[in-house]
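Saturday, quiet lab. Running sequence design on the structure tokens for the scaffold JK sent over.
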């Protein structure tokens, strides 16, 4: 398995539902068990720059804010291939 840090808009735009994403959060977010969690992407709303990680618990992040260093929750994001 290859782990790639996501650092460009093109990388985020290429993600599709079902891709494996590893996300490090700034702090533990309920109901997640750790600061670093893996997700199968639920949806990638490219027009809104949002990656929906888990619909049931409303866990998502704006990748454009992440790339600009303005993300409130996410420190780092990786794709596992």
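Result came back. Writing it out in full:
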């Amino acid at each position: 398995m290859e782990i790639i840090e996501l650092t460009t808009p093109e990388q985020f735009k290429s993600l599709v539902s079902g891709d494996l994403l590893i996300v490090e959060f700034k702090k533990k977010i309920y109901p997640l068990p750790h600061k670093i969690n893996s997700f199968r992407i639920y949806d990638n709303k490219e027009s809104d720059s949002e990656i929906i990680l888990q619909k049931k618990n409303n866990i998502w992040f704006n990748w454009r804010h992440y790339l600009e260093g303005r993300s409130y929750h996410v420190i780092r994001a990786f794709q596992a291939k």
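Notes for JK: The chain has a mean pLDDT of 92. Residues 9-13 form the longest helix (5 residues). Ask whether to fix the surface positions before the next round.
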